[in-house]
Amino acid sequence: MLSLCPPFRAVVSLCFAGLASVSLMSRPVKAQAPVDLPLFHREGHTIIPNRVELAVAGGPVARVTFDTGSTGLRILESFVGPDVRRTDEPMREVYGDGTEFEGYLGYGVVAFRTRDGALLRTAAEVPIHVVTKVTCVESKPRCPGQQLGDAGVMGLRFDQKRAGMLSPLRFLPGALANGFIVDVTGEEPHVRLGLNEENTRGFRFARLSPANPATTSDGKLSLWVADSITSCFSIEGSESVCGPVLFDTGGSAMDINMDGLPPELLAREFLRAGVRLAFEVPDVFRLTFRSEGHHDVRIRPGHGSNSGERFFRHYLVAFDGQNGRIGFLARGHEEDNALQPR
Fold first, then answer.
1. How many Å from the N-terminal Cα to the C-terminal Cα in the chain?
2. What one-character DSSP code corresponds to residue 92?
3. 142 and 66 share a domain?
4. Which domain holds residue 257?
5. Which end of the chain is more exposed for a tag (fewer CB within 10 A), N or C?
């Protein structure tokens, strides 16, 4: 689920200054070997790097949010190239923060800039939401909108939205389409495309539930419910509250569906700095940490829980679209009662 900041009042102009209109290098990438996409920070955004660079339908290089909490590529028209196959079908998407994208459905090949600078193209045209207008919904007039320098959002969930919108990564050639690992720490944060026995060794996996329908219309891709993994939260040793959670690189705060907390633990809807929290998927991982305060952990009774970006500082996370599961590998000694890989 996308979350952008800072807030603004006005409708955002789509006449952004383009990122460098250089062409991606055209050296071929081996289709079956794992490939890394570098991750970049948004300027002024320090939680995790969650931007990748790509070119759409022969257009300029653009930087978009790598968002495991939404579905489909949604990109400003000014960054879409001349090779787009345009349709007359209108498209609209509203994110949880109130940002609204309007435009039309198009199709085109997407090319990703890899860590070594090589060009990695999708094996087929990708359905694209070409965005012509960015506004805020009436109920959230101060929504973040689209940030200067960001060209759009690439949603990576394993489900399917209206008009056949899917994750663009599922159109990659060969084994590169089967899933990916998000690694946001170190000197070279990246997404590793293409899961195999070697690069998932040591991960502990939780299963996703099949979506309805369970496959795409041509039956070639399995579809999965992104927030179907049950997690449990405990605050300052309280009894655990359990429910579904979304593991989301695009949501800034960790959201917890919980009520009845003592008011002294809260600053408005966020946990105060220093409050101790345990977050676990039983038999898979257990993470304990102390809240950093402002905009870190949000208590939202009646809303779905969300890992938020911070979680990815503690774990490598593998999203397996072929087998319908998400895997976790601790980065260090963050866990209480550390679970051994199986």
1. 31
2. E
3. yes
4. 229-330
5. C
